[in-house]
Each structure stands twice: as structure tokens, then as C-alpha cells.
Amino acid sequence: MGAAIDTNLALNLHDVAKTYRTGLFGRSQVRALRGVEMRVHRGEIFGLLGPNGAGKSTLVKILMTVIRPSSCKGTMLGHPVGHKSSLRRVGYLPEHHRFPEYLTASQVLDYFGALSDVPRSDRKKRSGELLDLVGISKWADHKVKGFSKGMRQRLGIANALMMDPELVVLDEPTDGVDPVGRKEIREVLTRLREQGRTIFLNSHLLSELEMVCDRVAIIVQGQVTSQGSIEELTRDSKRYEIEVAPPELSGAESPNAHPTSFLPAALSGIAAMGAMPELPGDSNAPPVSQGSSRELAIKGTLYSGVPVTIDQSGIRVGTDDPTIVQPILDALRARGLVIRSVRPVRESLEDLFMKAVMDPSTGKALKPGANLASSPELRPDSTSPQR
Amino acid sequence: MRQTFAIFVDAYRELNSKKLFWISMAISLAVVAALAIPTQTQGGLSIFGAKLENGPFQLLGSKGVSPAAFYKFIYSWIGINLWLGWGATILALISTASMIPDLVSSGSIELTLSKPLARLRLFLTKYAAGLVFVGLQAGVFALGTILVIGLRSGTWDARPLLVVPIMILFFSFLHCISVLVGLITRSTLMALLAVVLVWLGIWAVQTTEGVLFDQRVQSERQITRTDEQLKALRTGLDQFKAQLNRLQPNAPTTPQADTSTPSSTDAKPDAASSSAPAAQSADVSTPPAPPAPPDRRGNSRRQMQRDTNRLLENGKRMFEAMTTQDPEQIRAQIRSYESQIAAVERIRPEQETSATNMRRWHTRLYVAFTALPKTGATKELFQRWVIDKSDWDGFLKVLDEMGGGGDGGRDTQEELNKRPLWWILGTSLAFEAFILAIACWIFCRRDF
User: Fold this and answer.
1) Which of A180, A210, B179, B432 would you call most buried, defined as having the most Cβ atoms within 10 angstroms of its Cβ?
2) Closest chain B CA to residue A67
């Protein structure tokens, strides 16, 4: 018995695995994907992130039947992955795509539209519309051979939309496109979402993904380590950062005074702060040398239960509730300290990504791929939201 | 159907973008036009008033073949065998060698495989689209041939259109190699190199098989002829012995050795020596000469004709000798016949050994050739299907008159023409199917 098909999901992937056999007689094996679990809702823009060699392209190629999976229990638009007919409703822009150079832009759309089984009348109609949409309509009758990389990319996006797809899979859609073009592409994607289409984006440009994606998944060494909306993924990182000017000492400001030297006392009435960590050498001296005290931080808890940290940048309050911050500000003012800024902060997608791709034990980026014989099993981040 | 049509249209667009396609097309038209220039005369042909009526040109004179057949012959020999069979095929191989490497190249294959089209169907359609080049070339050539034959001879015959399927089949036997190697290596150069090497290999095997087959046919015919001659000699000997018995019932039928007549050991197995006994007794009553023993080499049709004439002459002389009443003359004939029989019996085992060896080697090569595509025989199907039997007979008649029909190649050609269609096309298509099956399996299983 297969699992019930959720019609709200454009993609519902379970246990997607792919092992490549390499070397003489396929003796060596590389596990590119190791049981990917992923769900993409209809009508959303979903971003797939991951470092080079993480298995993103392999996953996309499996969806598009370019690669045969070692195992795959998922569905795409309600059909098992690999079901050829369902590809009639899926548009695809491969990374580094190469259109036949002897064709014109119109002929490219006509040819690949016909391969997608789009009727001739629809092809003629949509061809002009799409070339206009991506801004190359005046190049419709020019051969692809003379196109720039950006123009080819725009043509690729038009081609992905030719069959009026329900799901659009775009692999690095803004690759080689200038900033104006990128903005236009983002607008196209937003418009497609408004039309109810699902967009599956694979890109390295985290800032762009952050701007348009409803949900993202981060894939590292063939496994999804985190998945959810950016809001969900960064909820725990939401905080207020309060920057405080150091107190004046003997009439002159001491610009290098470390916050840990004067802020714990200011907060003593509203929080239970931890002890001052010891520095190597002179343990009694306040940390004034920036180089040696960069990592220095004192952790504590407000009496309301909210965690608070004092470090080089000031006070970090682990909440997104502004009312909780007010007593801290009052205490600082009562001490006569000057508050330079109060900012609500949350982690960027880049922070999230970097956290996911770093090996916590070594502090270095994880290597791409994973050899079957030698790679340690990666443990998915169980605390990350996955729905 | 929409997808299949799109792939064929794309194949045409790709060819259309290549200069080689149009160069090839222009040469095809030029060949068609050039072959329309010769005019048939009674004794051969004339080109711009210059008469060519000697040597092989005589074969094409109007006394042998019809005007329509005249053009069919020259279109077949020059247009198909030389131009379409070699020149255009090489250009087609160059033009189409990149089709599969381009299809499976990174960035291109993703665009195609992500379409709602089964891999097998995609691959086979793409393969078939690769045959468009030759199809169009042959189509233009066939239409030109029909036009020229119709205008020059007044006979409108649509059969030259058969060159289209023939050339497509011929080209497909090579194209499958190009496709398989192109798929495995993803290299146009390797695909081209491989197909040229295989083509040369096929040509070498085909030629060697043809030579061995010719030798085999000739050696077997030689044995048959030797047996016939032995039979004739023995019959003659028996008749002389019977006649001697009638004249001298008590005389021994085996004559005593006579130094004046050639002994069996002196007899030489050639026509010159065999006529000696007849010459010796010619002054008595012109006794018949026994049939000349065959030589070791394969005899030709012309020699067979000479043999037949000699046998008739000898029969006449034998009749005269058998009516003579001179016992000595009869004994001389008996001695002559016995020596000839001995000579022929001596070379018979050699011929048998030679034929057995030839048969063995040819059989081995035939088996190897059976597994390969019959490119040459496929091209020759045009002659078999398009040129009428009456025209062939007229052609051969002129060949005989020229004395050129004695070549053993004609016997061999007749035997080759007996090879069934299923063997020529069936085994070739089986080869193609095998190569394609491997290619399809790779294409359907590979991760791109």
C-alpha cells in the first residue's frame, strides 16, 4: 500500500537516495543522496540550498527523470516521481543549459514546446507572450548562436514556462543575468506564484532566495538538514541587540572598555548574570584588548526567564517581544549609560546556511559528496523545523 | 506523433544549417545532370559527339539494351555505386556523426529527457531522424533519375525511387555504429573514426568473401566438368573396346604397349597433347581425338564453349573411327583414351583437394560475413529490382559477342544474384538491430 497522496503538495519526497558507481567495474561508490525527505506545497516558491556537491542537482535531475534514483518513494504533482506524463505539467530550466545553436529563439520554444506535447496553436500564441515576458521579444527570429549568457538564461526561463506548467523547476535561474534582469526574474517568479504555480528554485544566491522564497530546504552531503519557512528557521535566532556606550572614566570616554566590564552591574537588578569568565594571564584585569576578548561573553537570564548575553557588541536579549526589553533600557538609563541603538535582529538565510554547512566538530565546511565506505553518517538536525 | 514530427523537423533544421548538406545536394544534382549527357548509339555511346564504342562501352549500345536500361545502368554504376554509395555516404556520415554526441552533451540532454517522452522512443526517433540526410539526398537523386530517363528515353518508370529505401538501409547499417560509439564516447570524432574503420572492415571482409566465393564456384565447376569429361572418355573407351571385340573376338581388349603411341605416363593433361593421338591416326581414317582434359585453373564460359565445340567435333570423328574396320586404328584409339583417362584421374584428386580447401575457407568467411551488414549487396539491389531481365539478357549477349562473357566473374555473379533477399537484408538488419539494442540499453539506463 502506497502512502495517501496529499493533493496540496506539489512535491512529496521520501527516502530519495542515489548512489553513483565509479571506477573500474563500479567498485567505488559515492552516495550523492541519502534518504532525502522533502515537501513542497502547491503555490509556493521553494528554495533548495546547499554547498557544491551537496546533491541539489542530482535531486533535481531525479525529479526530471534525467537521473535514475537508487530509491525514491515520492510523488510529484500527485504521480510517482519518474512518471513521464506528469512532466507535461512541469517546466524545467537546467543549469548550464545548451539550446541548439542553429535554432532561433522562437524555434527553440516551438521545438521544446512540441516535445512537451503542446499543440501548435498554443505554441505560436505562447511563444510571443513568453519572449515578451522575459524581455527578448525583439530577438525572436535571431539564432541562439549569437545570444549572450543572460539572453540564453531568459530564453531558458521562457522555455520552462512554455507548457503552462503547474510546477516550475529552475536551476540557477539568475546565473549570468545582470541586476536589472535579476529583479525582472524575481518579479516573474512572484507573478507565477500569484497565478498559483509552484516554483522550485535551486540557487546559490541566498539573498535572492530570501527575497522570494516562502520555504527553503538546506541539503548537505545528500541529506536535508533543515526545511521550513525562513520565519520558522530563524525564529530561535530572533533577538534584540542593545548597543551601549562605555561609561566616562575620569572625564574621558574609554572607547575600548569591554561591555562585560560594566554592563553586568547595570543589569544586576533585573537579571541573574553568570560569572565573569577568566582570561588567560591576568584574570583580574578587565578585558580591554579587543583581540583577546572577541569571544568573551557573559550569559545570564532575566527574571522573566528570557536569556540575555553580554558580549563585545553589547547586550543581546533572546526575544522578539519589545516589552521585555524595556526594563533593561530603564536599568541602563538609571546607571547613566548612553544607549546607542536598540535593534530587533534575526539570522539571515546566509547565517542559517553557513551554520548548516559547517562541521561543528572542526568548524570547517563539510566536504562535498560522501563516499560510501569512508563517510561518517550525518545526523539531521532534529531541532530544525521540518514539516 | 507531435513529438516525433518535432524531432524530424529539428533534424531537418540541423541539416539545413550545415553547409555539407547543401554541398552534397548540389553534387547529387550535378551527378544527375552529368549522367544525362551521354547519348546511346548502336555500338556504345557518344558524349558531345565523341563516340565511345570500344571496350566496355559496346555493352551499352542499343543493340544490347534499351535506352531506358542504358540510363539505368549508368545511374546504377556511377550514380549509386560511386556517388551515393561512397561520396554522399561519407558526407552524410560526417554530417550526422555529431547528432548523438550533441544530444547527450551536458546541458542539452537535460532539456530533452525532462520532456514527457520515453527515452527509448526519443532515442529511436532521433536515430531515425539521422537517416533524413541520406533520404533527402537519395530522394532528389531518384527524382532526377526518373526525369532524365523519362526525357531521354521516353520511358517513365517510377522504380528508381527504390533507391531511397535502398540507400536509407545501406546508410543505416553504418549509422548505427556511429550512434553507438557516439553515445558511449560522447565524441563526434570517435564516432566518425569508428564508423569509417568498421566500414573498411566490412568492405575488406566483403571483398575477400567475394574472391573466395569466386574461387569456390570455379573450382566446383571445374570438378563437375572433369567428371563429365571422365565419363565421356570412359564411354568412348568402352565403345572402342566393344568394336575391337566385334572385329577380333579373341584378341585382347587391352592393347600391348606400343612405343609409337603415347603411354599413359607420358600423357600430359592439356589440350595440345590430347590432340596428338588423333593427329597420328589422321592419315588412316581421322580417328576422333578424346576430349581435352581440364586444366587446373578455373575454366571460363568461353572455354566451356570451346570444350563443347571440341566434344562435338570429337563425336563426329569418333563416329567415323567406330565405323572403321581397322583393328590397329582402334587399338591406337584405345591407348590414347586410356592415357587421357589416366591423366585426368591424376589431376582429379588435386582439384578435389583444392575445392575442399576453398570451400572450407570460404565457409568460414561466409559465416563471418553473414554476421556483418551487406553494404555492397544492398546497393546492388537497385540493379536487381530496377533493371529488367530482358535488358540484362541483352547486356550479357553483347558481353558474349565481345568475348568478355568468358570471365569466371559472370558465373560468380550469377551465383551471387541467387543469394536470397532475406540473407542480404535480413542478416544486415539483424546486425543493425543488435547494435541498436546495445545503444538503446545504454541510453535508457545511463544517468546523464
Assistant:
1) B179
2) B447
